[in-house]
Each structure stands twice: as C-alpha cells, then as structure tokens.
Automatic annotation (TrEMBL):
Record EC number: 4.1.1.17
Obligatory cofactor(s): pyridoxal 5'-phosphate
Entry's family note: Belongs to the Orn/Lys/Arg decarboxylase class-II family.
Top-level lineage group: Bacteria
Protein name, as recorded: ornithine decarboxylase
Pathway in which this enzyme or protein is active: Amine and polyamine biosynthesis; putrescine biosynthesis via L-ornithine pathway; putrescine from L-ornithine: step 1/1
Domain Orn/DAP/Arg decarboxylase 2 N-terminal intervals: 25-258
Length: 376
C-alpha cells in the first residue's frame, strides 16, 4: 500500500467497499514498460481499468490504447488519445460498430476469421488488420480460452483474404494468458508469428507488426519477474525467430499496468462456523465475486489481504461475499489464513486490485451498489 492510499483511507473513511487507485503507481508502471521496451509501443488494455483519470494520465504519457468496444474507443478519445493511437482489438465486432469506429478515425482492427475480415472490408475500406492466433497460455494464473484466435496455420489464408479485399494485412497478434509468470511463454508464439511472416512473404505480402499481447503480471501472493526480465526474454525470442528482419512490436498491458496501483477497502460482515466441530471458519465480506472480485473464480487469483490484527494467531477461513447467491464464495478449496481475532465490523484491505475489479462490478446485483472507485 502506498502512503497516498493509506492517508486517503485514514482521512476520507469512505463508507462501504471501495477501490482506491494511486496514479503515481500507474505512472511508474508505464515508464517501466517504456524504458524496458523502448522500441515497442504500449497499447494499454482499457478493459483493465477505464477510469477517466487513468486513461487521461496514460494519454498524456504517450500511451496508445487497446479497446474492445465503441464505448472504449470513445473513452480513449475523450482522454486525449488521437485515433491513430487506438486499436479495436476485439475479434468479435458488430459491423455497425466497426463502421462507427472507422468514422471516429480508428484504422487498426483485430481479426481471427474470414467473416470478420469481410465485415471490416465492407465498412472500413483500407484499414489495417492483424490476425490473432491461438496460444496455449501455459503458466498463466488466469489462462485464456479458445474464444479468441485461430490456429496459426489459418492465419496466412485470413490475412491474404484481407489483402485481396483491399485491406492492409498488417501483422499477427497473440496472448499468452493473463498473469503470466513465465517469461519464456512468448517464445513459441513469436516463433509461430515468424512462420506466418515467412509464409505471407512467399505469397507476395509483407507483414509489418507483431502484437505481443498482454500477460504481464501483478504481484499478488507470489513474487513475479520484473518488467525488464520479460523485455529481455521477448527481445531474445524476436531475434531468435526473426533474425535481422525485426518487425514493429506492440504490447497490451492491462493488469501489469494498473493492478498494483489499487487497494480495495472492505468490511467483515459475519464470522461463523458450519458445525461445532468445524476447524474452518467462514468469513463474509461486504464485497465478493459480484462486487468486483470475479477473478477469484476457481480461486485463480489469490489477492493479498491485510487486517489490523495480522500479528495475531492465524486460522484457516473460507472467504465469501455478501450476496444471496451460493456461487459468491471466493476461497474454499484452498482456505485463506486470517487472524483468529478477526471480528464483525473489522476493516480488511485487499491489495493488487487495481485491474479487473470495477469493470466486473457494473451491475448492482442483489441491490449491492457497484464498486466505488477513487483515483488519487
């Protein structure tokens, strides 16, 4: 926790669960990426945390933006980004949304099939497209499904189709899985991208860009490599597989940019047991899966939790949210150790929550308000 967040919580005492984001941390993270990868453009993943203050800071620092909807395109523009700094990175887009983004000046689009290419060709003539390929995501704590991307062998056909329809076949993208702690995870994907570049060259079409995606982690309960370690591993992979023909590169950090900048303040609502002989207590907070902690699903992301009683004896606890839904249990398979002395009304601080929390709590399920956010 930063001193700025600590002082804010001490003096403001906001009621109910809330997220507090320190912009100084976001600034430091952006500068770390820019320094470690000076020849790579940063496209911040807006979905991670679209707070206007975060977007405005990043726009001022020179960041580009990866967007998944027209609404996010408008957010990036409102924050001060010019259209040439915006990518429409969702591979699933309504044709009318592509048309709107094109009217707003966006010229860079993701695809993973011929049908998506055809939509773009109809309403965004001459736009640049990059084809997303599948990656296994091994080593990621929040692995991605096969929802986005195609098998690498399909990519040349899709990109050639784009070229034939008058679009610019610009490059290849992939995502190695969110919260990727293995710095070597990019190697196989870069190798696939290089193979696609060669195949396209044989077809008389020159690709220019590799989108290295996101995956850069936030520190939760386990240490993670520094940005510099990822930068070195990625640079080595590009030199190994592309040789002297180094492509343009972009990255799409989201979690790695804002995750460590945020702290959620929450409150203990209830402490109980399910039987007199139960060694495990149930601790219910005023925030749960439906209030912003959706990434505790399958206990994939385990957030650091701090209390004022952390020096006391610890005991295993099931951690759950306040809603009237049995799925609103965060940690049960692997109980969380919390102080035996923890009581109803105690404040808990959930660290590393700057990413993928407010965006997952937009609906007031059960009447519980969406997660409040304060950016300082």
């Amino acid at each position: 926790m930063t001193d700025r967040i600590r002082e804010f919580l001490r003096t403001r005492r906001p009621d109910g669960p809330c997220l507090v984001v320190d912009l100084d941390v976001v600034r430091d993270k952006f500068l770390s990426f820019a320094k470690a990868m000076p020849d790579t453009r940063v496209f911040y993943a807006v979905k991670a945390n679209p707070a206007p203050e975060v977007l405005a800071l990043l726009a001022e620092l020179g960041s580009c933006f990866d967007t998944a909807s027209v609404a996010e395109v408008r957010m990036a523009l409102a924050a001060g980004a010019t259209p040439d700094r915006i990518s429409f990175g969702n591979t699933i887009k309504k044709e009318r949304d592509i048309a709107t983004a094109f009217e707003l000046g966006v010229r860079l689009y993701a695809v993973d099939c011929e049908a998506e290419v055809e939509k773009i060709a109809r309403v965004a003539p001459g736009a640049r497209v990059f084809c997303r390929i599948l990656s296994d995501g091994a080593g990621a704590e929040w692995p991605l499904s096969r929802k986005f991307g195609c098998e690498p062998a399909m990519a040349p056909r899709i990109l050639e189709h784009a070229h034939r329809l008058g679009l610019e076949a610009y490059g290849v993208s992939f995502h190695v899985g969110s919260q990727q702690r293995n710095t070597g995870a990019w190697d196989a994907a870069v190798a696939s991208a290089a193979g696609i570049f060669r195949e396209m060259s044989d077809r008389g079409i020159t690709l220019k860009m590799v989108n290295l995606g996101g995956g850069f982690p936030t520190r939760y309960l386990k240490n993670v490599p520094a940005v510099q370690a990822y930068a070195q591993a990625i640079s080595d992979a590009i030199l190994t597989h592309f040789g002297n023909q180094v492509p343009e590169t972009i990255i799409e950090p989201g979690r790695g940019m804002v995750g460590s900048a945020g702290i959620i303040k929450a409150e203990v609502v209830l402490v109980s047991k399910k039987s007199d002989t139960d060694d495990v207590r149930w601790v219910y907070l005023d925030i749960g899966k439906f209030g912003g902690l959706a990434e505790t699903m399958d206990e994939a992301i385990r957030y650091p939790i701090r209390t004022e009683r952390d020096g006391d004896e610890m005991t295993p606890c099931v951690l759950a949210g306040p809603t009237c839904d049995s799925a609103d249990v965060m940690y049960e398979k692997d109980p969380y150790f919390l102080p035996v002395s923890l009581e109803i009304g105690d404040e808990v601080l959930i660290e590393g929550t700057g990413a993928y929390t407010t965006t997952y709590s937009a609906v007031a399920f059960n009447g519980f308000e969406p997660l409040k956010s304060y950016v300082i």
